[in-house]
């Protein structure tokens, strides 16, 4: 071929890896964390219990869970100097831009847990990241709305603490509604880990160079922000709101099918699932629970249900095996709870930090692991002689 080299690399690609954390069967719509189904975990478990399971490989006993929650709780505060860091951003900065910056900066504040060769420091950094993400996320929200930062409290659950830090104001305490707390905790479980998705692969690749864990998680946050990945939850609700009424759905389905139109149905399709994303099933059920509990009806939910119904009976979507994914319904719940759309991906990052940290630990503690080096098929010109500029 013109200039195309062909070669047999004679090696297994470093782009793939072994992992014991999560199993996905995309054809069957199966998702397991350390062998437990996402359906059972999201129904029976808590986010902290799933965090322990992903990090340590087994469901904790009551005492183990209590110790783990106590450790995480005691790491929820952040260095006071970090609040100055927030003040360097414009108030209208996207909260994900703030999270990319602030999480990357953590290694400047917690350099006593950046030695990746020390298992003790690795675990402290892991606990710090899981514990501080809700505090940092709530601070990003507070900064964007011009309200004072609210400190974490040790008498609240992980998710309850986050809700209070986000929605409390000095003038009025936010009462954590247990139904909302349970729904958000379930949403965190649904986002905790998902095998070698783009952002997790980013964290593993960054970690393979020996970069400190805070920098690796910041890299994962940056990758997650993309609308094809974690940014889809924000894009999906914006799309549903733009559709507005069921009669406008056919025109959006037609656009999604038009090869010449870059528009995609946000919250639909998946690299791996060629069946219904099991997380979307749980998410749809949770929407009903939250809207009923809050005694609100959201016309966007009706649009979402009718859009799903029409798409799943459309030949294009059937042939391409396109189904709702985790991002299709999540925004409806998060909006009903009170989060603005630009916080949706921040919540995804908060929850996915558990998976990222578990994958980072799994990779970094493998003595055989080498620096990642995805290879390429060279498609450029064959070697050729230099031509001086006067002769070009
Ligand atoms: C997440 O990897 C993970 O696990 C990610 C994630 C996680 O938990 O980490 O699950 C989270 O990122 C979920 C995905 C969120 N993104 C979106 O909802 C954005 C909208 N979806 C698309 O951009 C798309 O479906 C992707 C990016 C998710 C996947 O795109 P691919 O790799 O092109 O999917 P595919 O190969 O299965 O597509 C098959 C065909 C293609 O057309 P042809 O090239 O065959 O002609 O279907 C088309 C695609 O163009 N297609 C769509 C579509 N998704 C795919 N057409 C219209 N609307 C869509 N949503």
From TrEMBL:
InterPro entries: Citrate_synth-like_lrg_a-sub, Citrate_synth-like_sm_a-sub, Citrate_synthase, Citrate_synthase_AS, Citrate_synthase_bac-typ, Citrate_synthase_sf, Citrate_synthase_typ-I. It comes from the Bacteria. Signal peptide: none annotated. One of its GO terms (biological process) is tricarboxylic acid cycle. GO terms for cellular component: cytoplasm. It catalyses: oxaloacetate + acetyl-CoA + H2O = citrate + CoA + H(+). The keyword Acyltransferase applies. The active site is at residues 270, 327. Pathway: Carbohydrate metabolism; tricarboxylic acid cycle; isocitrate from oxaloacetate: step 1/2. GO terms for molecular function: citrate synthase activity. Keywords: Acyltransferase, Transferase, Tricarboxylic acid cycle. SUPFAM superfamilies: Citrate synthase. Belongs to the citrate synthase family. PANTHER family: CITRATE SYNTHASE (PTHR42871). This is Citrate synthase. It comes from Sphingobium nicotianae. The lineage of its organism: Bacteria, Pseudomonadati, Pseudomonadota, Alphaproteobacteria, Sphingomonadales.
């Amino acid at each position: 071929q013109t200039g195309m080299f062909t070669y047999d690399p004679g090696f297994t690609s470093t782009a793939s890896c072994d992992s014991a954390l999560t199993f996905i069967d995309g054809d069957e719509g199966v998702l397991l964390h350390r062998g437990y189904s996402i359906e059972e975990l999201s129904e029976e478990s808590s986010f902290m219990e799933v965090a322990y399971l992903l990090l340590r490989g087994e469901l904790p006993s009551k005492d183990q869970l209590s110790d783990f929650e106590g450790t995480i709780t005691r790491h929820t505060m952040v260095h006071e100097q970090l609040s100055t860091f927030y003040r360097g951003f414009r108030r209208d900065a996207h909260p994900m831009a703030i999270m990319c910056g602030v999480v990357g900066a953590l290694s400047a504040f917690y350099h006593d847990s950046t030695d990746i060769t020390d298992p003790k420091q690795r675990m402290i950094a892991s606990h710090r990241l899981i514990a501080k993400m809700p505090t940092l996320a709530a601070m990003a929200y507070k900064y964007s709305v011009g309200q004072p930062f609210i400190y974490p409290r040790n008498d609240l659950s992980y998710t309850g603490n986050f809700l209070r830090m986000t929605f409390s104001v000095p003038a009025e305490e936010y009462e954590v509604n247990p139904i909302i707390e349970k729904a958000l905790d379930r949403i965190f479980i649904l986002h905790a880990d998902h095998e070698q998705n783009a952002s997790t692969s980013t964290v593993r690749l960054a970690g393979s160079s020996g970069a400190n864990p805070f920098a690796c998680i910041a890299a994962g946050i940056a990758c997650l922000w993309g609308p094809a990945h974690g940014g889809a939850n924000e894009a999906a609700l914006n799309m549903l709101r733009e559709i507005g009424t069921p009669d406008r759905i056919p025109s959006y389905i037609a656009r999604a099918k038009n090869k010449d139109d870059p528009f995609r149905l946000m919250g639909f399709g998946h690299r791996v699932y060629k069946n219904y994303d099991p997380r979307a099933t749980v998410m749809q059920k949770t929407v009903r629970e939250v809207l009923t509990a809050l005694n609100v009806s959201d016309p966007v939910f009706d649009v979402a249900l009718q859009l799903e119904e029409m798409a799943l009976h459309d030949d294009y979507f059937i042939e391409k095996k396109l189904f709702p994914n985790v991002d299709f319904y999540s925004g409806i719940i998060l909006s009903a709870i009170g989060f603005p759309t630009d916080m949706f991906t921040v919540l995804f990052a908060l929850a996915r930090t558990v998976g990222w940290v578990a994958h980072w630990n799994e990779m970094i503690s493998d003595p055989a692991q080498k620096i990642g080096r995805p290879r390429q098929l060279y498609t450029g010109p064959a070697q050729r002689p230099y031509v001086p500029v006067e002769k070009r």
